[in-house]
Design a protein that fits this description.
The complex is a heterodimer of chains A (about 425) and B (about 200).
Chain A lengths: L6 E5 L11 E7 L2 E8 L7 H6 L7 H5 L6 H16 L5 H29 L3 H22 L8 E2 L2 E2 L18 H7 L7 H23 L3 H7 L7 H6 L5 H4 L7 H4 L20 H28 L16 H6 L1 H12 L7 E9 L2 E9 L7 E5 L1 H7 L1 H5 L4 H10 L4 H5 L1
Antiparallel strand pairs in A: 1-2, 2-3, 4-5, 6-7, 7-8
Helix pairs in contact in A: 3-4, 4-5, 4-12, 4-17, 5-7, 7-12
Chain B lengths: L2 H14 L3 E7 L2 E6 L4 H10 L7 E9 L13 E9 L4 E8 L7 E3 L8 H12 L2 E3 L28 E6 L4 E6 L20
Parallel strand pairs in B: 2-5, 6-7
Antiparallel strand pairs in B: 1-2, 3-4, 4-5, 8-9
Classes of the chains: A mainly alpha (about 425), B alpha/beta (about 200).
């Protein structure tokens, strides 16, 4: 009888379950994984090096393109690092807007995650359900920033502009009759805040729908329960953060433990798992949907009652208003200097971290007093997660690898940077 | 400086003793520096000491200081910067260690202290060329297979050295020197007063 050897298999980079450009070199014994060696870097664009050659403001759109399913959360860490170094106060209304959009982003991210994770494990319907809701949230992104995805909405000192008074509506076209049009525009009659509030009222029902499909589903449980188990001690040593850490039962959330912006004034709970397997991480993220929804509701209430400025009036960092620019010499000079030379950040270093939908997203910034960062390091949560891939999949079947990739919520924009 | 930071910096001074070469507190963050030969001892102490308990390493990155303040930097060129987090005591610290030799920067590996450093050290090696002694698997990680050079060093051009194209005659992808030029519309400028006026 022939001797049976381990064999090596190449997985990706062009594989639909690889969530982008992941290449895995797998050593298999039959169908059991002996070693998984992820090869990353196929999407490496050198964002950190590019940022060293651009002014602080010019790098904001690069941040959108890191984790391209949670765009505004990336910007948030970046502007927070700058604000920390400048010692800049952000107006309270801007802080509420940021928190609201962070949570909208969290829902966006988790929607893509549940869609793709479901698709990987054979629950085709999830993808279509999740993308239905994503569309509404992209409309909110578009209403405030003009872009569906790469918003560049957060700026050092606040957000680019206040929430619009009117939610954009669908227009007449020859493909839609009047009745269809009215139905589409039904919840778009008021302001953007009205639309968001309407969404938060609808959304818990949607989450119930997802849970009906998956939570007690026998196939879903067979694919996720007991897969990729990580103990709490191991999770800390492996550098896991966010839902990956909370799924293992460690109660750690930067929004609660090291609050930034106005999270300390909001009411929400931190879900944690027990067993540290894929199913617990699924449950944690499902509960985060509901908690994010709760936070958005509170922000909408607050924002309705409290108008005010949304960006700092320090014209050395934020541009003056259009009218001042056209009538006032000083404002014109500020505008010109800001968009040509940019502002200077005092020499020093800072690390700013936020609770990104995927985990701890940090920006380490070193400045030597120039108008460009001297060194920018992006601490991407996915990088540490995928480094743990080998340990999480060892001894599992090949098909479970896909469940582990899904549960890690891999997005290559942030891992490869 | 808040009471918590004061207590932590006192605790760090106590725990690290003579291994600590510098401790600075700025912007609500503590930075400690140590010598490369004490690096592992310091890290183990930071992880295991009862009042420190930095059980998680959030980040490890390389820094190339050669162009700092447009070349006014005096001191070793390469540094490795760690960001540590204590989940149980809710505190952070930054550790910086300089590689003694500028031409061949070598530091001891931390894989045995925090396993997560494996990939972070591969990244620092790939991008800055910092070697980590006794690292089990020091391969390139982000750049292409067969890449030459360390792209995040300050003397590496931003447009790179080579570009890639498909050669129909050889029927394969070939490399050649870059044909594009670096375009920089906003000069880098340090102003003494910090903010522009």
């Amino acid at each position: 009888m022939a001797e049976i050897h381990n064999y090596t298999m190449n997985f990706g980079p062009q594989h639909p379950a690889a969530h982008g450009v992941l290449r895995l070199v797998l050593e298999l014994d039959g169908e059991v994984i002996q070693r998984a060696d992820p090869h990353i870097g196929l999407l490496h664009r050198g964002t950190e090096k590019l940022a060293e050659n651009r002014t602080y403001l010019q790098s904001v759109p690069y941040m959108d393109r890191l984790d391209y399913v949670s765009m505004m959360a990336n910007e948030h860490a970046y502007v927070m690092a700058i604000e920390k170094m400048l010692g800049l106060e952000v107006p309270i209304r801007a802080q509420y807007i940021r928190v609201m959009f962070d949570e909208i982003t969290r829902i966006l991210n988790h929607l893509l995650w549940i869609g793709a994770h479901g698709l990987d494990l054979g629950a085709m319907t999830m993808f279509i359900y999740a993308f239905r809701e994503r569309e509404d949230l992209f409309d909110v992104y578009e209403a405030v920033s003009g872009a569906r995805m790469h918003a560049a909405y957060y700026r050092p000192g606040g957000v680019y502009r206040d929430l619009p008074e009117k939610m954009p509506q669908y227009e007449t076209s020859k493909f839609r009759n009047k009745a269809q049009l009215n139905k589409l525009n039904e919840n778009r009659q008021g302001s953007v805040l009205d639309f968001i509030e309407d969404f938060t009222n609808r959304f818990p029902t949607y989450v119930d729908e997802y849970e009906t499909l998956l939570t007690d589903n026998r196939i879903w449980k067979q694919r996720t329960v007991g897969i990729g188990v990580v103990s709490p001690e191991r999770a800390l040593a492996l550098g896991l953060t966010g839902p990956m850490l909370r799924g293992s039962g460690v109660e750690w959330d930067l929004r609660r433990k090291q609050p930034y912006e106005v999270y300390d004034q909001l009411d929400f709970d931190i879900p944690i798992g027990v067993n540290g397997d894929c199913y617990d991480r699924y449950l944690v993220r499902m509960e985060e949907f509901r908690q994010s929804n709760r936070i958005i509701k509170q922000c909408v209430d607050w924002l309705r009652k409290n108008p005010g400025p949304v960006i700092t009036d320090d014209n050395k960092v934020a541009p003056p208003d259009r009218e001042g620019m056209k009538t006032n010499m000083e404002d014109m000079i500020h505008h010109f200097k800001l968009f040509t030379e940019g502002f200077h950040v005092p020499a020093g270093e800072a690390y700013a971290a936020i609770e990104h939908p995927k985990g701890e997203f940090g920006i380490y910034m070193v400045s030597d007093g120039a108008n460009k960062p001297y060194r920018l390091k992006i601490r991407a949560p996915g990088f540490a997660h995928i480094a743990a891939m080998d340990e999480m999949t060892r001894g599992h079947m090949l098909a479970d690898l896909v469940a582990v990739i899904g549960t890690q919520d891999i997005v290559f924009g942030e891992i490869d940077r | 400086m808040s009471a918590k930071l004061e207590a932590l910096s006192a605790q760090l001074k106590l725990a690290l003793g003579t291994n600590l070469t510098k401790l600075t507190v700025d912007l609500g963050e503590i930075t400690v520096e140590c010598k490369a030969k004490d690096f592992i001892a310091v890290c183990v102490r930071l992880r295991d000491h009862g009042e420190l308990q930095f059980e998680q390493l959030t980040d490890l990155c390389g820094v190339d200081y050669s162009d700092y303040e447009d070349g006014l930097w005096e001191g070793p060129r390469y540094a490795v910067v760690l960001h540590l987090l204590s989940v149980s005591l809710n505190q952070r610290v930054r550790v910086r260690v300089f590689a003694p030799d500028d031409d061949f920067p070598v530091l001891p590996t931390l894989v045995d202290v925090w396993p997560v450093t494996n990939w972070f050290e591969r990244e620092a090696f790939d991008l800055f060329g910092i070697m980590f002694e006794n690292h089990p698997d020091l391969r390139r990680i982000l750049t292409d297979y067969g890449f030459v050079g360390h792209p995040f060093r300050k003397d590496f051009p931003m447009v790179g050295e080579v570009e890639m194209r498909y050669d129909p005659e050889q029927q394969r992808v070939v490399y050649r020197p870059v044909s594009i030029e670096l375009r920089n519309n906003v000069p880098r400028l340090i102003r003494d007063e910090g903010q522009h006026s």
